[in-house]
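I have been asked to look over a protein record a colleague put together. Alongside the sequence sits a line of tokens, each denoting a local backbone shape. Please read both lines and tell me whether the tokens look consistent with the sequence. Take the sequence as given and treat only the tokens as open to question. I have pasted the whole thing underneath without changing anything:
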Amino acid sequence: MENKKVIFSGMQPSGSLTLGNYLGALKNWVNLQSEYDCYYCVVDMHAITVPKEPKDLRKNTLEVLANYIAAGIDPEQVTLFIQSHVPAHAELGWILNCFSYYGELSRMTQFKDKSKKQDSNAITAGLFTYPVLMVADILLYQADLVPVGEDQRQHLELSRDIAARFNNRFSETFKIPDPFITKDGAKIMSLQDPTSKMSKSDANENSFILLKDDVDSIRRKFKRAVTDSIGIVAYNDEQQGVKNLINIHSKISGKSIEEIVTTYEGKGYAQFKDDVAEVVVNELKPIQEKVDYLLKNKDYLEKIYIAGAEKAEYAARKTLRKVQKKVGFIPR
């Protein structure tokens, strides 16, 4: 049987997932699972780089796992696990810290952005070095491809640099991962400021749709979505708000941009916004019902994450043992 290429990806359990997370990543992951050997992970170790309530972190971790499955990820087809259940992530993370340069980590734009939002005396070493843990996540599984958005591209470049640095020093150890760019790379933007990415950390709750939002909230948020005074449903950079709504409709309905624009010729924004809301409501309803069911059946979720961690551990240990030997650790 032909060996499938390996894909690794994960999301932080830092609260409920948004429509942006779903359309920008999760829906794509589902499409990749039959074609690739996929490792999908809930990256709870990354989540604690900023303070978290322990009970919320546990609840959110299970909720994200349930969302993965409800969105269509098949635990029989992929390796689905919780990051902290595979100690090799932390072990390789430490070793790779010793092959990462202070200068390259201080240039990480996400670190700069996140540290601006915190008291400079409270910025942790974890926040500074978490890109190296991300490198360990990827290299542990000898990933060929990593689905990345523009904001994560710098971290993937770091993975490539550190892997090459290690390989040059100790001989071929890690695969050099490539970015997996989806054909439709349109980002889902804020409903209130369509020049910014949709984010649940936005102060205005009308700017994002959560996967668990009820029907009335979804309809209300789309009604309030920022458009413009032009009044014509068209796809261009002058009409960022409308463009964003068209992207959302297209990604869910599967209709082309041209088809959507033609449908709303001469109809104005009110009808269009209502219809986009209905498309989203119909997409999220079965996911919400499945999440609800899974969270009431925690034993089933537990079976999945235990089995997934065992599979992940087996693959991760092979890489880790090789690395430990090369750096000079005595085998246990």
Summary: DSSP finds 13 helices and five strands in the chain. The two ends are 34 Å apart (CA to CA). The CA atoms of residues 245 and 276 lie 7 Å apart. The chain has two domains: 6-186+298-327, 205-292.
